[in-house]
Every structure is written in C-alpha cells, then in structure tokens.
Design brief:
The protein is an alpha+beta fold. Helices cover 67% and strands 18% of the residues.
Amino acid sequence: MISNLKSQMRKGLLEYCILSIISRDEAYASDILDILKEAQLVVVEGTVYPLLTRMKNEGLLSYRWQESTGGPPRKYYALTDEGRELLSQLDSEWQSICQAINKVTQ
C-alpha cells in the first residue's frame, strides 16, 4: 500500500517538477530525466516523453531541434507564456499545500 501511495504522490508532482526544471533554461528530455533521478524522483522515459508531448500540445511548452555531434538531432523544450503562468500558479499552490501540511503534521 505505501508503495502505491508514494507512486501516486510522485505522479501528481511530476508535471510541476518538469515545468520547474525547464523554467531555468531550455532542456533536453534526457537532461530532465537526469535531474529527476538526481532528486530521487525516479521516472522512466516512457513516463516523461508522453508527458512532454501532452504539455506541448496543451501549449505549455515549445521546442526546437538542435543538431547533435554525437547522434540524431535533439529536441530542446522551453516554457511558453502559458507554461510560465501555470508554473507561477503551481508555485503558489505548492506553498499553500506545504503550509497546510506543516500545520497538520506539527
């Protein structure tokens, strides 16, 4: 049961985390995966790629292709104005949630 609960909590935060990562600078999908893994939010490519596509289709992300010296061209993602607005809203909501949880658990 705890494993399922932890998994559901992480899935719910994944979009927020991805928007936060891309807000720093445009990012390549494998860079996003590496940052998530370093933060111990281990996710697989099969989760991140469809999410990036959905977020792009929703107008939250844009992308550009860049030639790679070591393989096929790479797709670099950036936030759109809509993506920045959503991230701002999520930041505010996250702060509210953290404050509420701290009140309840302390």
